[in-house]
User: Fold this.
Amino acid sequence: MQSTAREVELRTALVTGGSGAIGSAICRCLAAQGLHVIVHAHQRLEQAQQLAAELQVGGATAQAIAFDVTDRDGAAQALARLDEQAPVQVLVNNAGVHDDAPLAGMTGPQWDRVIDVSLNGFYNVTHPLLLPMIRTRWGRIINVSSVTGVIGNRGQVNYAAAKAGLHGATMSLALELASRGITVNAIAPGIIASPVIQDAFPKEAIEALVPMKRAGTTEEVAALVAFLCSEQAGYITGQVISINGGMA
Assistant:
């Protein structure tokens, strides 16, 4: 039986790293679909609150929340409080960090920090939400990865390892949840326009790296996430979908 429009409106989406460039675009797109959006941040709670207020002004329902995805107990406590409001049925694991260096010169803390946020953070956020989501018999989990996890990149062995690990987790969790009405997918963006990218990739470098000769937009990434969260994407699960302008 298909869900009614009212039921879709009541679904809750949590976007980790929701105050960042890609995360905020995802929050806006999901709010436009009628979901109640929880904008997560760690140290940028004020930005998350501003985004939630912006969404509310636009007629959506939204709220902000702050916790450290690497703090297993703290994340579990924060997520338990959310579950008291309503089960999270759409989870976008978007939180991630870079701490780049060639592996020969990479420190232990650099390795640990990236793995902790991107990979351990996936477990710390997803695990507490699974049983409540399973009980609803409907869910969407989207893990935001990177082209680096698909093809690698110099100076990002830690980041590539974390994201490639996320791909394996995505495919395995999809098998575990396929009979429960829950899909699990990952997206792997390439060079996406943002203030950070503008500094790291001049126009000439983007033209050399990307067959489409341009950076992608955060709105294009958000549109893919929103589709994977929709009813129409109910038969897509266990996939790692690249969105990178044709980068091999």
In short: Residues 1-9 have pLDDT under 50 and may be disordered. The two ends are 40 Å apart (CA to CA).
